[in-house]
Design goal:
Rossmann fold, 11 strands, alpha/beta, globular
């Protein structure tokens, strides 16, 4: 695991595997609140420090080599029947030791060129939504009708509980969530999102209609700190489920809001480049993508949506359509894990 989203993606699978008596070793790199989330679990965990965002491509390559060396030593000791995750190292170590490896992916390969180039050729299989293009490795893709977010936000696993929220959020008639991602991953190079000036404009639009809370991977300026979302990271989805609107430059949280039936606006330069978000936008009409060159459009839509107190009711109906058409993703992943682990 190298991102908080990976914890959420796999937590139910890990719990299911452990409950039936399987051994699971979790390897995690420090990223944002990932360790805070993992510490809530009774897991066998190896923690590694976060990758440095400095140093360019040489530093990235060196970090990958060091990580793979440590992963190789761990795999030789633990001898797993299967390795699964998003890190390219599991495919190289898996091939070297004859252990099946599964890349769990939700992005189209063109959006993650490093992973597609270095991991896909060595992976045993790629687990990805049906809508995602994994070229040139589509022959390795095991598709399903669903999204990563349904591995943990499907009603089989998640029921929103307002009592888990602080009194300030429970008593608010309406509230809105703004998200700032760090945009420091290798595939984020040259991408931008919501800056402080735009955040101030959003606050001016939103505050007349309800409370505003900000969740951020980056350091907040003094003027924005008072809006920080006052919940533990493990409770974030309960907070999101009762929000009237989500606005952010994180595509993961935009998709989470969408599958929860929360009106969702994503503002970044990945708009139009990720099939699963395009599907959520155009097939199910549960999210809206706006590129960073169109900030005026963002402000206009936020103004319209924040004034419409019935909007969330309409989105709840769209969510029901989504749930009818998709599957329990965690259960499907477990089936694939069992199938490939049996070949070891």
């Amino acid at each position: 695991m190298g991102h908080p989203a990976h914890y959420h993606n796999l937590k139910n699978c890990i719990r299911i595997l452990q409950d039936r008596g399987d051994e699971v070793l979790v390897v995690a790199r420090g990223k944002d609140v990932l360790f805070d989330l993992i510490d809530c679990e009774d897991w066998n965990v190896v923690k590694w420090p976060a990758r440095s965002v400095k140093g360019g491509k040489f530093s990235l390559a060196l970090n990958i080599l060091k990580r793979e060396s440590k992963l190789l030593a761990l795999a030789r000791k633990f001898r797993p029947h299967l390795m699964a995750g998003t890190d390219l190292g599991i495919t190289h170590v898996g091939r070297l030791l004859g252990i099946p490896s599964i890349i769990i992916n939700e992005d189209d390969s063109k959006a993650i060129p490093l992973l597609a180039r270095l991991a896909f050729p060595h992976a045993t299989a790629i687990l990805a939504p049906n809508c995602c293009d994994q070229s040139p490795a589509n022959h390795k893709k095991i598709g399903y009708e669903g999204y990563h977010e349904l591995a943990y936000l499907h009603p089989n696993y998640f029921q929103p509980d307002k009592t888990m929220l602080p009194e300030r959020m429970q008593s608010a008639e309406r509230y809105f969530i703004i998200r700032f991602a760090s945009l420091h991953a290798h595939h984020d190079e040259g991408r931008s999102g919501i800056d402080d000036e735009l955040a101030s404009q959003l606050l001016e639009i939103l505050t007349p209609h309800g409370e505003v809370f900000i969740t951020s991977e980056r350091t907040l300026s003094l003027g924005l700190e008072s809006y920080r979302l006052p919940v533990h990271p493990a409770v974030i989805h309960h907070a999101m489920a009762f929000a009237d609107l989500y606005i952010g430059d994180s595509q993961t949280m935009a998709a989470e809001a969408a599958v929860l039936g929360v009106p969702s606006i994503r503002f970044n330069d990945f708009v139009g480049e990720l099939a699963y978000l395009d599907e959520l936008e155009y097939k199910y009409q549960l999210t809206k993508g706006i590129r960073t060159s169109q900030s005026d459009d963002l402000l206009k839509i936020v103004s319209e949506w924040s004034r419409d107190s019935s909007l969330k009711t309409h989105f709840a109906k769209k969510r029901e359509v989504l749930l009818e058409a998709t599957i329990d993703v965690s259960s499907r992943w477990i089936e694939v894990f069992d199938q490939l682990a049996g070949t070891h």
